[in-house]
Amino acid sequence: MLRQYELVDRVLSYDPNADEALLNRAYVFSMQAHGSQKRASGDPYFSHPIEVAGILTDLHLDDETIATAILHDTIEDTVATPEQIEKTFGPNVARLVDGVTKLSKIEAQTENERAAENLRKFLLAMSGDIRVLLVKLADRLHNMRTLHHIPNADKRRRIARETMDIYAPLAERIGMYEFMKEMQTLAFRELEPDAYASITKRLEQLQDGGGDRISRIGSGIRMLLGRAGVNADVTGREKHPYSIWRKMAERHISFEQLSDIMAFRVIVADEAECYRALGIIHQKWPMVPGRFKDYISTPKRNGYRSLHTSVIHGEKARIEIQIRSAEMHAQAEYGLAAHWAYKQGNGQPDAQANWIRDLLEILEHAESAEEILEHTRMAMYQDRIFAFTPNGELIQLPKGATPVDFAYAVHTDLGDQAVGAKINSRVVPLRTPIENGDQVQILRSKAQEPQPGWLNFVVTGKARAAIRRFVRHKERDESIALGRKFYDEIVRRLPAQLGQEALAAALKRLNMADQDVLMEAIARGSISDAEVMEALMPGAGGGDVAGARPAPQQREAISIKGLTPGVAFTLAPCCNPVPGDRIVGLRRPDEAVEVHAIDCPTLADGVDADWVDLAWGDGSDGGTARLTVIVKNEPGSLGVMASILGAQQANIVNLALVHRDSSFHTFQLSIEVHDVTHLMRILAALRAADAISSAERA
Predict the structure, then answer these.
(1) Does the keyword Hydrolase apply (predicted)?
(2) What DSSP element (H or E) covers 651?
C-alpha cells in the first residue's frame, strides 16, 4: 500500500501545482473513516481506495480526482456524510464522490433493478463530469485484481459478468485499452476458468517451444525499418487469453488453427512516418487480405488512431502489426485520460465522448431495469464498423447494424421517419446489414412512424429504446381510445342518464388517478363492465345486493375502425379476419383484445375469456387473409396463380408449399386484401383457372 508521502510525491511529480494539503486531508480523513474495516483478503479496507488513487496517478490525473479516489467509499461504507465531504474538501470533490458512490439503499427487489439503478446514477454523474468514470474504472480494476479473495462463488461471477458487460466496454469506449484488457482477462478467468486455464497453458507451451521468437521477429521489424531510415520502437506480445478465446468462438476454430496470436506495436515519430513504415512492411511481407484498417484517417469514436495490418511473416507465421506515433500511443494507452484538460474543475465531455448522450437517451426511454441493462450493453458493444452519410460524415455502428440503426444514430427523428434506404446508391430493405465503409442514405417520410417489426432486426440500444418507447406510447394511446369506445357503450346500457359528476365519483370509488387510467383498464380487461357500471351508478351493475338484477348485456357492436392491428387489438392467427367478416373480441385481463371471425373453430371449442361484439366500422380497409390453393403439377401453374393474384391487386405476404404429390401441389398463402368482398373476387378468379384445382379460405 502506498504511504501518504509516496502518494503525494507521485502527484507532485507530474503536477507541481497540485494542492498538497487537499491530498493530505483526504488521506487522513479516509484512513480515520474506514478505521478497522477489513477487506475479504484480510487487508485493511483503507488499502483499497489508496490503491485506486495509485492507479489514477499513473494516468497523471488532477488532485481533485486523486482525492475523489481516496474518498470514494467513505459515504457508502462509513458514517461520513456528503455534507462532511463538501465542507472539508469543497463542492467539486463532493460532487465527484457522490457520482462514484453506489446507491446503498435502493428499494428494489431484484438484482437487475439494483444494477440498473446504480448504472443509471453512475451514467448521469458521468455525463456531468467524465472524471467520475475514470475513478469508477480504477475502482473496478482494483476490485477485479482482488476478486479471488471473495469466498462466495456466485458473488464473484456476478461481479465478473458486470465487469465484462459494462465496465470493460466503457473502458474501451474512452480508449483505455490497457484497463479494458486487464478487466477482460480477470473476468474471463472467473467466468470461464477451464477455457482460461487451457489457453494460458497453451500460451506457456508456445513460449517454451518458440524461445525468443517474439523478440526475434520484433528485432527483424526494427532492423527492416531502420535500414529504410525509419527510426521505430518495436515491441511484441501474445494476445491476451480473452481476445484469443473470442476469436476462437467467433471463427469456430481451435487454438492450433488460430494463426495471428502474436501482435507487434511499431511507434514512430509522426503520422507521415506511420504510412511510410506501413509501405516498407507491405513491401517485405504479403498482407493478409481484409485485415488492414486505417484508424488514422478514420479514427474510432473514442479517438483511437493507428494503422492495423496483418502480414505473413518469413517464419510462416501470421502476425498483427499496429503502427502509430508516440502521441497516438499515449491516446491508445490511456484514452480520454491522456488528453483530458480540466479547467477550473470542469470535466465536461468533448466531442469524443458524445456517445454518453446516447446512453442518457436510453435511460430516458427505458421502462424497466432489464431494458436499461440490455440497451446499455448494446450501446457499448465493442465490435464496430464504419459507415458514411451522403455528406461524408462518419457514423460508427455495431457489426450487424441495419439502416434503421444508422438512421437512429444520425438523429432520432430520422429513425422515426425512415421508410427506406440506399446503400451505395442501391435501394435495399431496411433490415439489410451494413458493411464496413458503406455509404448509407435514409429515405424518410413525415407520415412514417416506427414499426414494431423493426425490433426483430435492430441491434443498437439507441434504436431499440426509441422504438420500444414509441410502441409503448402508441399501445397506451390506442388502448385508451378503444377503452373510450367500450366506456361509451357501457354508459348507453345504464338505466338512467349519468350526472356531470358521475365519472369523477366513479374514479374515486375505483381508486384510479384519471380517465385515461380507467379507459386503459377497460380496454385491457382488468376491470369488468359490471364493475364500471356499479362505480358510475351504484346498483346498476348488480353489486352484492341480494335479488338485484344482473348488469345488462352489450347491445351495440363496438367499432375498431381507426385502431391499429397488433396494438390495441390483435387479429387472431387461427382465422385471420378481414373487413366484412362478422367479428367478436375476446377480452382477457391485462391483454390486448383478440379479434376472431364469428365462425372461427377456436370459438366453438370454448374459451376462457369475455366475449365482446365488435364491428369493423364503415369504410374499414386492409387485412391479411390466408388461403389454401391446390394447383396442378404442370409447368406454369404457379405462374398462373401469381398472375391472377397480381391482376386482382392482392399482394402476397407469405407463400409455403405444404404438400406435393405426382398430380397436385398444395400451397398456403397469406395475401393482403381490402375486405371480404375483395377476397371473394380473388377466390372466384382462382377457382375459374384450369391450372388450379381448388382455392379455399384457410
Answers:
(1) yes
(2) strand 651-660
